[in-house]
């Protein structure tokens, strides 16, 4: 899931809140991270607060007590450094497949941002070593399972903290797996010996689910525009009408996303000879197009408005400092519940629902193209010699399989909760799980839209000698550079679909359309 690199060379933490573009720049495009000088000053100041408690006989959670249900155990002074190391080692208990590099880098950046806030009581050298690990391209091995989305993304963050200690496994900048000690030695980084509260500060946040939310929002912004382009090409190729996309009609229902999608579709269909061929109402007997064509702006617009809500939530979370306990600006050390991932988990699930529905309506348009009874004069399955050739029949099967999977992925994770830590942590968000399934959903949507684009491209070309509009023609030309989308006898189809998918992912489809339309929403 890569996108065009944003123009961000360095991301500064500890000043203004991070943005989604910052997360993408670091996670996907290896932008360097630096800590604002004033942030380092605040880190030093609040570290002195924690150090003042280091020898205190009064119980302070995470400094002189155990964790979770073991918080009633008072830890002697001489064992408090060991307490932090033991916490990280025991909590680095992930299982399953390795998590993607970009997810781990996003997680690391967001934890660094919280550490740089000065609210965690961490030492300056611990923070700067974490930054050095990220900038060196060293990526801890984090596993698929281990987070319940409450008390933070504990296991994923613990695997990163373990690497900071010089232990466990990582991948170097070239992607090679190796022991952390070896990677650190090659990069000239010295492992950290954790002190009071530092282990807890390194693992107590929503950074994994938030990082995946930020990446998904960036992807879905691109994909909802891609969906508008694909839908407009399908309407054009199926001899549908663009009259229903008129601005004054959408003004009657002032949903902002809907208006933006309708505008995109008008731009893509503009100056289309195919559309003009049946504009005369006396020659066109169809009064209304099917819902999958006529209501495309309403469906994609709903996704847009959901993205706006998700981006607001992400923005609030990116401006947050999440740790427990936290060092307040006036120097108190207070327990809290800000690590609960519910707000993030809810929007992750909401986006999975809209992702499934956007794919569902795309598949319906593809199916309409392939049905001789509904495609307004095109050959069955857009085949060259129907019966001998199957055309794009099985491409739609592939779409349908992914849409079915997307519906399963749309089942909310955040409604589940399994108590843990001997009932001390008796309600959890499952936000990490919501994020993991959204990533799978985004990938499936990219592939579903790619198949609609290939189908629409072939359908439009089968309208010859009539020509598509400039935007559709530009998209068809871009698709043809990566694979074949022209009509003809059956050929090995999977490579052409994969090529179209790659052009959806890297933004080429949107860029091609914009050469004719100008900037799209």
UniProtKB/TrEMBL annotation:
Domain of life, per lineage: Bacteria
Identification of the protein by name: Histidine ammonia-lyase
Organism: Knoellia koreensis
Location in the cell: Cytoplasm
Keywords, comma-separated and alphabetical: Histidine metabolism, Lyase
GO CC terms, sorted: cytoplasm
InterPro entries: Aromatic_Lyase, Fumarase/histidase_N, HutH, L-Aspartase-like, Phe/His_NH3-lyase_AS
Example of a GO biological process term: L-histidine catabolic process to glutamate and formate
């Amino acid at each position: 899931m890569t996108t065009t690199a944003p123009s961000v060379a360095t991301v500064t933490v500890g000043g203004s809140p991070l943005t989604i573009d910052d997360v993408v720049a670091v996670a996907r495009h290896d932008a360097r991270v630096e800590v604002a000088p004033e942030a380092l000053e605040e880190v030093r100041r609040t570290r002195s607060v924690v150090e003042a408690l280091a020898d205190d006989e009064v119980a302070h959670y995470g400094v002189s007590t155990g964790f979770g249900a073991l918080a009633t155990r008072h830890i002697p002074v001489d064992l408090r450094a060991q307490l932090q190391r033991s916490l990280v080692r025991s909590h680095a208990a992930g299982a399953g497949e390795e998590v993607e590099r970009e997810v781990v880098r996003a997680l690391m950046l967001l934890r660094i941002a919280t550490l740089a806030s000065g609210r965690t009581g961490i030492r300056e050298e611990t923070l700067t070593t974490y930054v050095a690990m990220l900038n060196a391209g060293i990526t801890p091995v984090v596993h698929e399972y281990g987070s319940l989305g409450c008390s933070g993304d504990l296991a994923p963050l613990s695997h990163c903290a373990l690497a900071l200690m010089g232990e466990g496994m990582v991948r170097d900048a070239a992607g090679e797996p190796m022991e952390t000690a070896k990677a650190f030695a090659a990069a000239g980084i010295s492992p950290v010996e954790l002190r009071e509260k530092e282990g807890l500060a390194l693992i107590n946040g929503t950074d994994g689910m938030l990082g995946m939310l930020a990446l998904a929002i960036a992807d879905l912004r691109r994909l909802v525009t891609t969906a508008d382009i694909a839908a407009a090409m399908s309407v054009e190729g199926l001899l549908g009408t663009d009259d229903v996309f008129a601005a004054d009609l959408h003004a009657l229902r002032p949903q902002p996303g809907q208006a933006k999608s309708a505008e995109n579709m008008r731009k893509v269909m503009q100056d289309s000879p195919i559309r003009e061929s049946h504009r005369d109402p006396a020659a066109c007997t169809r009064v209304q197009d099917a819902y999958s064509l006529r209501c495309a702006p309403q469906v994609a617009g709903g996704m847009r408005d959901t993205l706006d809500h998700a981006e607001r939530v992400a923005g609030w979370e990116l401006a947050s400092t999440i740790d427990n306990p936290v060092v307040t600006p006036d120097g108190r050390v207070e327990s809290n519940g800000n690590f609960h991932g519910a707000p993030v988990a809810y929007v992750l699930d909401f986006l999975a629902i809209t992702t499934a529905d956007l794919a569902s309506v795309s598949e319906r348009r593809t199916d309409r193209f392939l049905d001789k009874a509904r495609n307004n004069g095109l050959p069955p399955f857009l085949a060259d010699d129907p019966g001998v050739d199957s055309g794009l029949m099985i491409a739609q099967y592939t779409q349908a399989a992914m849409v079915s999977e997307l519906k399963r992925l749309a089942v909310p994770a955040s409604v589940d909760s399994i108590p843990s830590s001997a009932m001390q942590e008796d309600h959890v968000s499952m936000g990490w799980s919501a994020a993991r399934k959204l990533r799978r959903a985004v990938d499936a949507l990219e592939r579903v839209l790619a198949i609609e684009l290939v189908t629409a491209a072939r359908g439009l070309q089968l309208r010859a000698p009539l020509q598509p509009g400039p935007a559709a023609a530009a998209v068809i030309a871009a698709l043809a550079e990566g694979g074949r989308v022209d009509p003809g006898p059956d050929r090995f189809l999977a490579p052409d679909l994969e090529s179209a998918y790659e052009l959806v992912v890297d933004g080429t489809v949107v860029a091609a359309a914009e050469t004719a339309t100008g900037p799209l929403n």
